[in-house]
User: Fold these one by one.
Assistant:
Number 1:
Amino acid sequence: MILYAENVDPEAFKQQALQWASGFEVSGCLDSGNFGDKYSKFNTVIAAGVQTELKCNAGNAFNSLAAFREQNAEWLFGFLTYDLKNEIENLSSANSDHLQFPDLYFFAPQHLILIGAEGIEIISAEAEKILEQIERQHTANKRNIPHVEIKSRFNKGEYIDTIKTIQQHIVRGDIYETNFCQEFYVDGAFIDPLSVFRYLNEISPAPFSCFFKFHDQYIISASPERFMAKRGDQLISQPIKGTARRSTDVIEDEQLKNGLKNHPKEQQENVMIVDLVRNDLTKSAVPGTVKVEELFGIYSFEQVHQMISTVSCIKDETISDVEAIRNTFPMGSMTGAPKVSAMQLMEKYERTKRGVYSGAVGYFDPDGDFDFNVVIRTILYNAANQYLSFQVGSAITHNADPEKEYEECLLKAKAILQVLGQQ
């Protein structure tokens, strides 16, 4: 292990390290985009190469992960797909899946690079050799914009009609709120995943961005949302519900921001999910410790304003970290209320298996902490069959305007569409 901090441009080094790591069959990068909050532990972490790994599908995945974590108490990186819900509840997934990610994958890396305010740390048996390899990397500044034909599983009319049907379930009392998602996809896509990641995070920096390479499969994310983190004995979840566009006009932008903060429908969506998250956290919490740290917080990103709430608790020490994750998975912001009923209905009305989308990517560290994002604002790519996919969704309530919900989906996809040469 060495600490390398002299005469280094952290951003340039990060890009060189990313280039170097992408040459491995398995690698991952978690990047805060320099947003940083009181729960963040680093600006960027890059993991490359596999010492040992766990790959499994729903059935006994969480128990397998718990055992894998016990055997590997250092750094672990990986992803949990949305369809692990089928292990947690009596649910199934029968929609089409052209990406073919495993339901769960984690690896202990051979090499680890931490980039933070105090410098750059390389953790590896070959640290000096790796430093030399990274410094020899040449990174291209040129944007490599792919030329692709994007298709959709729903046309606008179909999407709006489906929302109206879902609202009939709300009228009947089957659910109160749900997150309804649609897929945009490309057949025969040929992209440079790392170049796409760099461009996406240039135009849409986000606190929970990630680049994950699993052989021929890629997760290219500019996620603004934390699913859950553990810091010491505390669990923290930060659901997003509520979105407004940005404006280049300062006065209008502030009006949009204030409009989001005070919008009854957005507050209604947010508080429903906060209640759901509070309920999920009670399964892992010391009784009486679940609390809302912040309600209806407004945070501004390059493309959108978001309404974010923060819910925390003290973790019951008899509950393992993996069990605590299982108790809150999938995250409330991507499901609905009641949670199981919403997931059942979305399997019926959505046309694509979610897979990694609305799952989570993150890490466990040697301190006993962990941090996972929510996989949204994300491109998923299978280079073997040249299939590219991104999904977007919006919260459907009784008062939702279907036309506006469709527009919100396109707003959330704006940066991805630009990266793919569509805007």
Number 2:
Amino acid sequence: MTELTPKYTISVVAQMVGLHEQSLRMYERKGLIQPQRSDGNIRLFSDADVERVRSIKRLVDDLGVNLAGAEVILHMREQMDLMRQELEQLQRLGRQLLKEDS
């Protein structure tokens, strides 16, 4: 599981993922990423944020998806993850109910 604690500044993340800081700012303006802000209004990225940026970069660079398409794909992934979690909960509940009936 990825860490949600913000700990990286924009310059560190840009270096980690091989993007320019302006690209990260643009991703934020377009709503693709939402880094937290420090008291001094400095963008702080968590490990999960960094992974999201890497996903966007892969979609754009490797698959040729534009940013609007990347946004749709990321949203669909999030929805699929939620549905998968709900399905797993229902399966656990179903198994529990079957055990109780036995």
Number 3:
Amino acid sequence: MKRTLRGYDVVEAASPREAKDLLKAHSFDALISDFNLESESDGLDLLQHARMSHPDVVRFLVTGNRDIDVATRAVNEGSVHRYFLKPWDDDRLRSALILLLRSRK
């Protein structure tokens, strides 16, 4: 992901709790989360939190999980602006990010 987002100021979080703390302390334009976070919650929970607490933050979900329920949940809950399956296409992800960031201004 860091290679894909070369040129952007990227901040990494090791857990959903750390990501939530960073959101409280700093202003971000976008949040990209994996679905599987190896914690008590998943990436959609984190993105849903971001949607409620920071609605202007662009939210992307990246996952290797091909379960249609994950995609359905992401769309129905409105947690994400874009959903990418692993391995993602660098150009498509960057283009979607650029488009959504520009549309916010």
Number 4:
Amino acid sequence: MLAGNFGVGKTSLFNRFIQDVFDERYLTTIGVKVDSKVVALDNGEQLKLMIWDIAGEVSQTKVPQTYWLGASGILYVFDLTRPTTFERIDDDIAFLKKKLPDCVIKLIGNKKDLVSSDRIEEVKAKFEVDAITSAKTGEQVEDVFLALANDIYAQTQPM
């Protein structure tokens, strides 16, 4: 599942990963967009990801609770160019961990192509970011979805 504030690039990451396309136009997601992709894991296994791109915010009042049911992994996305999208990271991640205690959650800073390396370092100093991506250039997009898939698979395997 892709989660985070509106306008952070969730749909752009979704489209880049699924179809390898990028569209400059901003079109808000209404409700949820779902698609799937089969990926090859590090161990050679294949895993079919059902990816949900949900509208807007993580807030309990904005997202129907049924959207979270059954989620195995979440990419929580924020916009590196908009500090207002950083404001609720800690609260949103805490909410997600409470709602889905066994879910793999990765924190993703998007729109790397629009910020300086200094901004990236500032953000990394403040948050435990799992990846810095650019949906526009495709940088780290495939890698972040594959990392999530590998972590989900590893979590489901017996010790």
